[in-house]
Specification:
Elements (H helix, E strand, L loop, with lengths): L2 H22 L5 H15 L4 H4 L9
Length: 61
């Protein structure tokens, strides 16, 4: 992994950690979360982040 790839991975993971916190606190909706995840996947192109991407969240009843 190059330094650039590592940097992008860190930025993606850190960003999404904060976004998940916003989701859990009700600041954003699940739909907004998925939109944000998509934006940052495209921006950072993380190597491992795609394995942990939460685009596939399932709705709770």
């Amino acid at each position: 992994m190059s330094k650039e790839e590592f940097r992008n991975e860190k930025l993606y993971q850190t960003t999404m950690h904060l976004v998940r916190k916003m989701l859990s606190e009700g600041i954003i909706s699940e739909k907004e979360y998925c939109q944000i995840d998509t934006i940052f996947l495209e921006k950072y192109r993380p190597v491992f982040g795609t394995l942990f991407s939460d685009i596939r969240l399932t709705s709770e009843p």
